[in-house]
Amino acid sequence: MQAEAENELGNLEPAKTLLKKIRNRAGLGNPVSTSKEQLRLEIEKERRLELAFEGYRWFDLVRTGRAIEVMQSCTDVQRTYAAKLTENRLIWPIPQTELDQNDLLIQNPGY
After folding, report:
1. How far apart are CA 94 and CA 32, in angstroms?
2. Which residues neighbour 47 within 8 Å (Cβ) at sequence distance 6 or greater?
3. Has residue 20 got a pLDDT over 70?
4. 31-61 burial by CB neighbour count: b if 16+ within 10 A, else e?
5. Tell me, what DSSP letter sits at residue 98?
6. pTM of the full predicted structure?
7. How far apart are CA 103 and CA 105, in angstroms?
């Protein structure tokens, strides 16, 4: 995540150095990105591979604003469930018991 933060701040070289450490440890080549956008995708891919099956992917996609784009690209219904993901499904509803106990809470949009 430090590499991601450095990249978003426009510090490409420190971000590449951090990504390089991870990739070299795994016996992979150095990052080849030349732009912030390319490096963002490289970091995202590396995080996806490094943390596979640990449950972070969905939250990474929501956090970076790419959940709808990525999930809607999964259209092969023969191999995957392709429900239409909409903006209001990115966050969960606040439980009714919590809303009943706290008048300051407002239900999340779409629920």
Report:
1. 43
2. 1, 4, 56, 60
3. yes
4. bebeeeeebbebbbebbeeeeeeeeebeebb
5. H
6. 0.72
7. 6
Chain segment 62-108, per-residue pLDDT in tens:
999 999 888 877 766 666 665 677 888 888 899 999 999 999 999 99
- Rounded to a whole number, what is the distance in angstroms from the first to the last CA of the chain? 32
Q: What is the pLDDT of residues 88-101, one digit of tens each?
A: 888 889 999 999 99
Measured at the CA of 57, the angle between CA 36 and CA 11, to 5 degrees, comes to 20
Percent helix, strand and coil across the chain, each rounded to 5? 55, 0, 45
Question: Any residues with CB less than 8 A from the CB of 50 and at least 6 apart, and which?
Answer: 22
Q: Please name the residue that has the structure tokens 């949009």.
A: 109
d(CA 16, CA 111): 41
